[in-house]
UniProtKB/TrEMBL annotation, chain A:
Keywords: Membrane, Transmembrane, Transmembrane helix, Transport. Pfam families: BPD_transp_1. The keyword Ubl conjugation does not apply. Its main location: membrane. This is Carbohydrate ABC transporter permease. Belongs to the binding-protein-dependent transport system permease family. Gene3D superfamilies: MetI-like. It comes from the Bacteria. Residues 89-293 form the ABC transmembrane type-1 domain. The chain crosses the membrane at residues 21-40, 94-114, 126-146, 216-237, 277-298. It is found in: Cell membrane; Membrane.
TrEMBL record, chain B:
This is Carbohydrate ABC transporter permease. Coiled coil: none annotated. The lineage of its organism: Bacteria, Bacillati, Actinomycetota, Actinomycetes, Micrococcales. It comes from Brachybacterium rhamnosum. Belongs to the binding-protein-dependent transport system permease family. The keyword Signal does not apply. Its main location: membrane. SUPFAM superfamilies: MetI-like (SSF161098). It is found in: Cell membrane. It is a multi-pass membrane protein.
């Protein structure tokens, strides 16, 4: 009911009009650069490219024919132009699930250490941003050198692994490079979450005789969970669209091909129908994961006004209790 | 962070052996934290340092794994700017694309984010949902139809935009704009509402309050958002790779990925590493200079 009253008031002082005015450029542009291409993609995925490059003139010849769901069928049965779909699908899934799982554990560990650090925090903070700031392309080249047959990685482990050739080791190389770049990001976000936890909660736990392990599982983790969930969700969705890293690190190796790469490859051969089908499947896959994560695990991404009000209350109580919080 | 040391329990007198046990525990904890910090430092910096070291070898030392590049040589850096690589031009292109994206996005996002943070209107949750959803979009689903569009694959689009800046900037907006709206939204929410209310009581309109009161206060937030947006746009690869096939229009990232170097038969690691360092160093300087702000900005979206 309070929202109703709120709304009535809002309409009164012209907030709606101003909001519309301020938001329309953003929404218009997003509709143009996101909504419209999305519709084009979905439509295009139902057509098959009669588009072929004329070998003598190099001009693209037009001629799309409607094929219904044939492109999707080709993809799911990995037949014809759709060959390589399941390979790319499982690569994408592997990089996402294994990568983000390890990143999360590493990131949380980093956050726990940083939260307890008293000295050199500026140095740590700056250095932890380095992997985040390095362009993925550059980090891929960097790891290519590290994973060279005669490179430093093989020298350190005393093996002769041909990292950037077809096989599990190529997938491992992608995973290691990806984890290196993104675990600190999760660590940063988790640290920000840790710093919002009230010290008194830990005091209370100590008084109750909780050991460190119990404190971590029963207090730290549940309290940092909302922040961690959002960080993990962002990372999941980002990992699912991975392109730069395997593209530069492994080139066209099948072992590293993701759905994004498959789609880009088809598009570069002007097979826009198949490319769109791959892209749409990836899009739906990402939507599915996002829905499962938000609905099933309760990752609160938006944090709308109502949710804020609910959370704001205990915070206010705490402020008055301590008196020194901003 | 420093509150952990001076918590009240340190001052409370307790039994002597319990106190010494606690002290021992703390010392052990400090050692563990110290080792952990060292590990984090090595983890984050070692690969980058290795890139730096490798870039300073002589090209003939190629993939040597010696820890110290000796004799030190800047030959690789000279090779990066070999005219055949168009690397200077590529850096300029990156600057135009990332800079253009940032300016455009910041202008629009400031307006939109203010509305989301401060005004109440119908469909607000839906708009916020849309903004978050677009930021999670796989870029490839935009790149495929836009490539077809810009190459003249549709009859109703007469312009060929391949090898143009707008072909890279416009698609970049798809990820940069939601990111910027999100960050600024968090910043606007942190500003006290009372400021605008006071201005409005004094007779200013809401828009006037936004321009005269909020914008000056939000300048640090806008600056941080600009940095984060710029870094995201500077690091973009898929769009830049797809929309351009003329070497002189490539961005730095694309140029590096295509380096063939002086000799054709050997991967020119030295040149690539040198180019990597050149592309990364401006970002690292930004990170060093504005680390607090950047971390605050990154965290703002997730800690509400």
């Amino acid at each position: 009911m309070s929202t109703l009253a709120h709304r009535r008031r809002a309409r009164g002082d012209g907030q709606e009009g101003l909001a519309g005015l301020l938001l329309s450029p953003t929404l218009l542009l997003l509709a143009l650069v996101v909504g419209f291409p999305l519709v084009l993609s979905v439509r295009q995925s139902l057509f098959q490219g009669g588009d072929e490059i004329d070998p003598t003139t190099g001009i693209i010849q037009q001629g799309d024919t409607f094929v219904g769901l044939q492109n999707y069928l080709d993809a799911f049965t990995s037949s014809g132009a759709g060959a390589g779909f399941w390979n790319a699908f499982w690569n994408t899934t592997l990089f996402t699930v294994v990568g983000v799982a390890i990143e999360t554990v590493l990131g949380v560990a980093m956050a726990l250490i940083m939260a307890r650090a008293l000295r050199a925090t500026g140095l740590i903070r700056a250095s932890i941003l380095v992997p985040w700031a390095i362009p993925t392309v550059v980090s891929a080249l960097m790891w290519q050198l590290i994973f060279d047959a005669n490179g430093i990685a093989n020298e350190i482990i005393g093996q002769q692994i041909l990292w950037t050739t077809e096989g599990l080791q190529a997938k491992a190389a992608v995973l290691i490079a990806d984890i290196w770049k993104t675990a600190p990001y999760i660590g940063l976000l988790t640290l920000a979450g840790l710093q919002t936890i009230d010290e008194q909660v830990y005091e209370a736990a100590k008084v109750d005789g909780a050991n460190r392990w119990q404190t971590f599982w029963r207090i730290t983790l549940p309290l940092v969970r909302p922040v961690l969930m959002v960080a993990v969700l962002f990372r999941l969705l980002d990992a699912m669209r991975m392109f730069d890293l395997p593209y530069v690190l492994l080139g066209r190796l099948r072992s590293g091909q993701t759905l994004s790469m498959l789609a880009a490859d088809a598009a570069s051969k002007t097979d826009f129908g198949m490319a769109s089908a791959y892209a749409v499947v990836l899009f739906l896959y990402i939507c599915l994961v996002a829905v499962i994560f938000v609905r099933g695990l309760g990752a609160d991404v938006i944090g709308d006004a109502d949710g804020r009000a609910r959370r704001a209350r205990p915070r206010r109580l705490r402020t008055t209790a301590e008196g020194d919080l901003p | 962070m420093s509150t952990t040391t001076t918590s009240p329990r340190d001052q409370v007198p307790v039994g002597a052996d319990r106190a010494s046990a606690a002290r021992r525990g703390r010392r052990l904890g400090a050692i563990v934290v110290g080792i952990g910090m060292a590990l984090i430092l090595v983890y984050c910096l070692a690969p980058f340092v290795w890139m730096l070291i490798s870039s300073l070898r002589r090209p003939s030392d190629g993939r040597s794994t010696a820890l110290i590049p000796w004799p030190i040589s800047v030959e690789n850096y000279r090779a990066v700017f070999d005219p055949a690589n168009h690397f200077g031009r590529a850096l300029g292109n990156s600057l135009v694309v990332a800079g253009g994206t940032t300016v455009l996005v910041l202008l629009l996002a400031t307006l939109g984010a203010y509305a989301l943070a401060r005004l109440s209107f119908r469909g607000k949750v839906l708009v916020m949902f849309l903004v978050v959803a677009t930021s999670m979009f796989p870029v490839i689903i935009l790149v495929v139809p836009l490539l077809k569009l810009f190459t003249g694959g549709f009859d109703w689009w007469p312009w060929s935009w391949i090898n143009t800046y707008q072909a890279m900037i416009l698609p970049s907006i798809s990820f940069a704009l939601p990111l910027a709206v999100w960050n600024l939204n968090a910043f606007f929410r942190q500003l006290p509402v009372e400021l605008e209310q006071a201005a409005m009581v004094d007779g200013t309109t809401r828009f006037g309050a936004f321009v005269r009161v909020i914008l000056p206060l939000a300048a640090p937030g806008m600056f941080t958002t600009a940095i984060i947006t710029f870094i995201a746009a500077w690091n973009e690869f898929l769009i830049a790779l797809t929309m351009v096939n003329r070497p002189e229009m490539q961005t730095a990232n694309v140029a590096i990925s295509k380096f063939t170097g002086i000799s054709q038969f050997d991967t020119p690691y030295g040149t690539k590493m040198a180019a990597g360092v050149i592309v990364t160093v401006p970002l690292i300087i930004m990170v060093l200079a504005f680390q607090r702000r950047i971390i605050g900005g990154l965290a703002a979206g997730s800690v509400k």
